[in-house]
């Protein structure tokens, strides 16, 4: 049997993770259908944008700095570090998730869902769901999953830190009016649903392979007659 640390999602948390991924997928679908083809934000979108704008009047440089967590180059570097750490700790499932989770999140949000829903912002730029938010939150979700096998304190601190970073990045995207706040919510939900689903698939596939290998190793060896 594989040690628990090799699993991305502990057995006891599988039902909760399935529910969470399903809820996130439902949120994305619902919001996407509500905003399909829209070219303006909702009252909530406008309220949040102007609230952020008033807080950062004359601080455009600060907002740009707050966009750092969404920078693709930085996210690629972080993914690379996670992969190297996973390899060093002999956690191949985590290494696969660190690459597959963010990549699939980016593809689903930008290449599949944005054209499908067709919501736009500014001069017709596709907006929902936010691809920058999806990729950022996907990487943060991988980091949180990586701490599932550690102490509860580490998990809580990692989750809290991830939430703060996500809020900072989303605030900057809204303040710069690259996205509506509902776009960032949709992007975050895409990331969480995708990464959690991929983690469950990896665990299931690896588990089946482990069972097959164990069964093969236990097969009796018959010696030929001489």
TrEMBL record:
Pfam families: PAP2
Keyword tags: Membrane, Transmembrane, Transmembrane helix
InterPro entries in UniProt: PAP2/HPO, PAP2/HPO_sf
Coiled coil: none
Transmembrane domains' residue ranges: 12-36, 72-89, 94-113, 125-146, 153-174, 180-202
Domain Phosphatidic acid phosphatase type 2/haloperoxidase: 87-202
Gene3D superfamilies according to UniProt: Phosphatidic acid phosphatase type 2/haloperoxidase
Protein name: Phosphatidic acid phosphatase type 2/haloperoxidase domain-containing protein
Lineage: Bacteria, Bacillati, Actinomycetota, Actinomycetes, Pseudonocardiales
């Amino acid at each position: 049997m594989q040690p628990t640390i090799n699993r991305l999602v502990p057995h006891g948390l599988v039902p909760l993770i399935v529910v969470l991924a399903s809820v996130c997928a439902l949120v994305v679908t619902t919001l996407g259908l509500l905003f399909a083809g829209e070219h303006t934000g909702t009252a909530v979108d406008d309220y949040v944008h102007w609230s952020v704008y008033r807080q950062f009047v004359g601080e455009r440089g600060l907002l740009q700095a707050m966009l750092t967590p969404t920078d693709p180059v930085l996210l690629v570097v972080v993914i690379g570090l996670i992969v190297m750490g996973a390899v060093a700790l002999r956690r191949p499932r985590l290494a696969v998730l660190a690459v597959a989770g963010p990549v699939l999140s980016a593809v689903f949000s930008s290449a599949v869902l944005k054209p499908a829903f067709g919501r736009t912002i500014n001069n017709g730029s596709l907006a929902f769901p936010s691809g920058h938010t999806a990729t950022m939150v996907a990487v943060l979700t991988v980091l949180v999953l990586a701490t599932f096998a550690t102490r509860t304190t580490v998990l809580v601190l990692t989750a809290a830190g991830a939430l703060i970073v996500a809020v900072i990045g989303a605030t900057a995207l809204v303040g710069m009016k690259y996205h509506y706040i509902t776009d960032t919510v949709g992007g975050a939900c895409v990331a969480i649903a995708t990464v959690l689903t991929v983690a469950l698939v990896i665990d299931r596939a690896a588990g089946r392979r482990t069972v097959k290998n164990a069964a093969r190793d236990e097969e009796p060896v018959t010696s030929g007659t001489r």
